[in-house]
Design a protein that fits this description.
This protein has five helices and nine strands; from the N terminus they run αββααβαββββαββ. The chain is of the alpha/beta class and 175 residues long. It has a domain at 53-174: Rossmann fold (3-Layer(aba) Sandwich), CATH 3.40.50.2020. The chain is globular, with a radius of gyration of 15 Å. Bound molecules: adenosine monophosphate.
Amino acid sequence: MATALDQVRALIRDVPDFPQPGILFKDLTPVLGDPAAFRAVIDELSARLRGKGFHRIVAIESRGFLFGAPLADRLGLGIAPIRKLGKLPYKTERVQYALEYGTGILEAHVDAVKPGEKVAIVDDLLATGGTAAAAGELVRKAGATVGAYLFVVELLALHGREKLRGAEVDALLAL
Ligand code: AMP
């Protein structure tokens, strides 16, 4: 019998050569557009974190926000956004990072997470791990602890989890 996550997997659309040649982009918008699948994803993500003493969800721009915000609400937690350079209005901490297609700088507000908090970093997809590792660095710079890195999808061939040391790494679907 197909599980709810099998149905989520079936909705993920492969888009070749986006945003540049050679990248097989995993498009999760059909999952977001299907109420049962979207709820199943938030159910599963929240089940992985519930009861483990997390203080906050930290979500990575921009697709991480789509999953992180309902997840935080479901768990009764606040959410801290991590964004690309120049998007956040207040004082920020910055980290440079490498990703599957290019490099960039991530920022978080200096007060987005509080010292001593245990947070879960959430994004839609783990590829090379550079983005999530940079997000972890920002959390640690703020004096907080990364308790978990949690993704909807993990691209196993890219071994991104090897960059994410010192915390549990979990994904709903391995592709
Ligand atoms: P990385 O830093 O390589 O782990 O890249 C992760 C970030 O880039 C996530 O925010 C993803 O949304 C996005 N990303 C990277 N590769 C892909 C891909 N093949 N399909 C969809 N999103 C991707």
